[in-house]
Amino acid sequence: FCSRIQRQAETTSEELGAVTVKASYRASEQKLRVELLSASSLLPLDSNGSSDPFVQLTLEPRHEFPELAPRETQKHKKDLHPLFDETFEFLVPAEPCMKDGACLLLTVLDHDTLGADDLEGEAFLPLRSVPGLTGTEEPGEVPQTRLPLTYPALNGDPVLQLLESRKGDREAQVFVRLRRQRAKQASQHAPRPGQ
To answer: Would you say 118 and 45 are in contact if contact means Cβ atoms under 8 Å apart?
Structure first.
């Protein structure tokens, strides 16, 4: 996750779109609050030239937050610039949030009634950058953060290759399978040069 966060930080283009969030941590309640405001400039993945987007929110890496189930926004019909304006709260101690690579993974998907949902892109919010997490002070006005969407690389990721070699580790195998599935979806929808 550290390398994906770094890659996203180096991304200047929003050719896959972007998501806008506000996040804060209330230490007194051990609560991470995430306001998912909107997504913009999403790629049209449906044959009608639009998309039916929704966002899945997951705290990663999973082994640090095993008891927290992924959350999802409402699905928006035929909208490449959806306004979600939804708030999610995760009850989580500050300690795992401060670790390297701990992040909120925002996966933007295009809802598909018949088949599997298509991947629009992913964004990563490093948790240690969330206001209220590092100190005892309660966060005041929380700034909006705009995150460009990126695609996972199909192969060549040394971390995935290492995890894949752990044949007896069920969690590693599930993780690798999900990442490869998303990377495969991404390669099918990647914008061609000149589009």
So the answer is: yes
- Answer for the pair 123, 106: CB distance below 8 angstroms, yes or no: yes
Please, are residues 98 and 83 in contact by the beta-carbon 8 Å criterion? Answer: no
Tokens 């913009």, residue located: 40
| Residues 105, 160 within the same domain | no
Global pTM value = 0.78
φ/ψ of 135, rounded to 5, equals -120, -175
> Do residues 105 and 135 share a domain?
yes
Report pLDDT digits (tens) over 149-188: 988 765 555 555 555 566 677 776 677 677 767 766 666 6
Task: Kindly tell me the burial class for residue 131, based on how many C-beta atoms sit within 10 Å of its own C-beta (0-12, 13-18, 19 or more).
Answer: middle
Determine the Cα–Cα distance for residues 97 and 64; give it in Å rounded to an integer.
Answer: 8
Residue type (1 letter), 188: Q
Of 122, 115, 142, nearest in space to 130 by CA: 142
Q: Is the pLDDT of residue 192 over 50?
A: no
Buried residues in 88-122 as b, exposed as e (16+ CB within 10 A): bebebebeebeeebbbbbbbbbbbeeeeebbbbbb
Does 32 share its domain with 9? Answer: yes
